[in-house]
Structures are given as C-alpha cells and as structure tokens.
Amino acid sequence: MSGLYLHIPFCRKRCTYCDFHFSTTFENYRARLVQAIATELALRANELNLPIRTIYFGGGTPSILSFAELESIFAAIHKNYHLAPSCEISFEVNPEDINETNLNFWKTLGINRLSIGLQTFSDDDLHWMNRAHQVNDGLAGIRLAQGCGFKNISVDLIYGLPGQSLAAWATSLNEVFKLGVQHLSAYCLTIEPKTALNHLVRQKKLQPADEILQSEQFLLLVQQAKAHGFEQYEISNFGLTGFQSKHNSAYWKFQPYIGVGPSAHSFDGSSRRWNVRNNTQYMNQVGKNDKWFETEQLSPNERRNEQILLGLRTIWGLDLHSLEADWNQKESAQIEEFARLNWLTISNNHMVLTEKGKLHADGIAAALFRVD
User: Fold this and answer.
1) Which pLDDT tens digit goes with each residue over 123-139?
2) Mean pLDDT of all residues in the chain?
3) Pick the CATH number of 3-252 from 3.40.190.10, 3.30.2130.30, 3.20.20.70, 3.20.20.140
4) How is domain 300-367 classified at the CATH fold level?
5) DSSP conformational letter for 180
C-alpha cells in the first residue's frame, strides 16, 4: 500500500446535488473529530509497509480546516508513516477559502496539488447549486494560487446541468483552458435520490438535461481537451503530460490504499473496508478503539467485476492477463459485438474503449460482469 485518503466531513453549505458524507453543523465537535482522525492514523500505521506515495484530502471541504487542525493531522501522518520524497499531496479547496495566507500555509505543510471546485462558469447555476462562491471568486483564486507558486492545479467542472446549452458548456471549457491549469475533472451531473436536487426535479422546479445533450457535451469536452493538449486518461479526468492524478490513478489501477475519517473506504488488494458514515459514532468508536468500520472479502467474481469496471474507464484499459479467469463463450460473443460496434479495441492483451465506447462504459462493463 502506498496511498492515503483522508475524508474531512465539514462543509459550510449543503450543495444541492451532493450526496457525499458531510455535516454543516460541526463547530461544537470539530476539534474532537480531528483528534479522532489523528487517532485512526496512529491505529492503522502498521497497515502500510511501503513509503506513502500519495495523500489526498477530500470531503466535505478540507480547506475549511484551521491551521492548528491541519498541523495536528500532518503531525499524526509524519509520526506514523514514512512519506516518499516525491509524495503527491492533493488538497480539495473551495474558492471562498483561497487567500494568500492560506495558500502559503498549505505550501509549508507540503501540499503540492490543489483540486479547486469551480463546478461552473455561470453564477445562476452556482446559485441553484447552493455553492458559497461566485464565478469571479474561482477565477481570482486560481490566479492567486498560481501567483503563490502552485504548479499543479486541478479544477472540477460539472456538465449536463439543467438548462445548460451546448454553447454554454463550450464557454465553460474555453474559460478553464484559458486559466493555464494542469488538470481538469469534468463530471456529468447525476441526480442522487436523497439530495435537494432530486427534490427540485420532482417538484418540477428544475428540468434535467436530456441524455442526447449530455452526450454531445461529453464529446465536446473530449474534443476540446485534446485540442488544448490534455490527455483523457480516465473517462472524467484530463491532464497535461506529467500531471495525471497519481492518487486517483492508483484507484483505477486496482492498487491498495487506506481511507481515514468517517465514511472513508480502504482496499488491501483482496478486501474492502469502509468506515461508519456517522460523525458521532466514528468519534466514539475510534476513541475507544472499538470497531468503527465494516469489511467485505471480495470473491473472485467480485474482484474480476471491479477490475473490469475500473480498467475500462482508463486510457490504459483492462489488462486481460490480470483477470481471474478467461472469457467464456457468451462473454467472448459480447466482446465481439462491442468491437463490431466500434466501442472497444483489443491490442497487446489490453481492452480499451473507443471514444464512442466511452459513452457506454458502464453498460459495457455490466455486460461482462459475473454473478456469484
């Protein structure tokens, strides 16, 4: 194992579309939860027998943490783990938290990659999303981060928004490429059941984008990213040469990692583990070194299915040598059909989706799954 993920479950506001685990009412226990994260880091120190090559602070909103809270977490990391000299340390940031003081402090901690949640270049869309920033805040924040010496900056965008035309999406893409950032993560909006967005759609206050328009926006994304020198190394992720996310790439390559914090997931190569999705329960049980997580041993078919699902999303494709068993007759026929449709190619024992096939990635993977 060489990757470490830390989930920071604090947010100032509840984004309309988000179903991640977080709380907006955390002030009375934030110090205790940070201490619980530090405790879990210590309790799990023996699970990593290699230098840590990547650390990723996600959430929630990691950039909401105070200097003292971040120092506490980094002290626990350095006390219990050995970091590789070139360790990639990514930090998710909301634009409203970016200022020169914060940027310079984050640099002193060793944070060398920022992931900034712009989401859109429309103030109207930011408003219904219930984001805490406006477009100009994001633009100014990125320029300030660049001026403070951050040379590895990723931005998040969302497409397939209600009422978002193809032209509006093209404008967002043009704006982000003008910023001179090194990485772009672009996700199609999904309407999750237990979100405010789902309620707005059910109340007919927002009209979801149709699938044809979403596909057109995706294809424009791929085309424009390539034109600006960005390599699509995973369906939703694009990087300039040398700026792929090392941490997330390890996920897609089915490599082990540790997840710390409430709701965080871990993988050791054969089993999955996930922490309780409740802040109070997490703090109480970690504090007593009582079981704060559940585990699942993956069957050969489950391992195979996950390898297929993850591998097909990437530029590296699915390594056919790594699968638990050969394709059966039905699966082989299905693969031949996908190849006939020009949805995938096979070369050097790697199955890779075509541009057309990426529009059907989940369906292709599901068609090749095996059920125990």
Assistant:
1) 999 999 999 999 999 99
2) 94
3) 3.20.20.70
4) Arc Repressor Mutant, subunit A (1.10.10)
5) T
